[in-house]
Amino acid sequence: MKHPALAALVVALLFSVVDSSNVWAQELRTAVQTGDKVRIIDTDGILTQGEIVGLSVNSFRLKVGKTIREWQDAQIREIQKRRKDPWWNGALLGLAIGGGTGYAIGQSGCGRDSESCFYVPAALAPAGMAIGAVAGAFIDFSIKKYDVVFRLKPIVGKGRNGAQLSFSF
């Protein structure tokens, strides 16, 4: 052999490429766990939403309604994980906005009477706070946000065949 270092490098690269599918599968399983609410887009482009009930070395099991479906890793194009967003942060924001709005409305309608300029905003601010808190909690609860944790994009072109793989945590 003329170049033993080059041969060793080629062998090392070959083993790293062969093992890379196992590495990305392990990384993916750290991004999602049993019990997570996810959306899976398969290689046919079909979106399925459910809860992860099982993860094996090379497959995902998802509870969809009352049935359990299974995908092999090679069948998955994208996984989106539902972001956990507590309802109370929307309630706090609504509380502040509603209280400020109630106070401002009370101040604008009080006229020249100094006594009503105290009592009207003092009565409208708590009412605005209650309305704002309920509205903020409802809005925050109703918005469902998903983050892409895995995406496999095929790369096909003149003289190029491959795939681009991306993870996010």
Task: Detail the topology: elements first, then pairings.
Elements: H1 4-31, E1 37-42, E2 47-55, E3 59-64, E4 67-72, E5 76-82, H2 88-108, H3 116-142, E6 146-157, E7 160-167
Antiparallel strand pairs: 1-2, 1-5, 2-3, 3-4, 5-6, 6-7
Q: What can you tell me about this protein's structure?
A:
The structure is a single chain. The protein is of the alpha+beta class. The protein has two domains: 4-84 and 144-167, Roll (SH3 type barrels); 88-142. It is built from three helices and seven strands; from the N terminus they run αβββββααββ. It has helices at residues 4-31, 88-108, 116-142; strands spanning 37-42, 47-55, 59-64, 67-72, 76-82, 146-157, 160-167. The longest helix is centred in the N-terminal third of the chain and has 28 residues, at 4-31. The model is unreliable at 6-21 (pLDDT under 50).
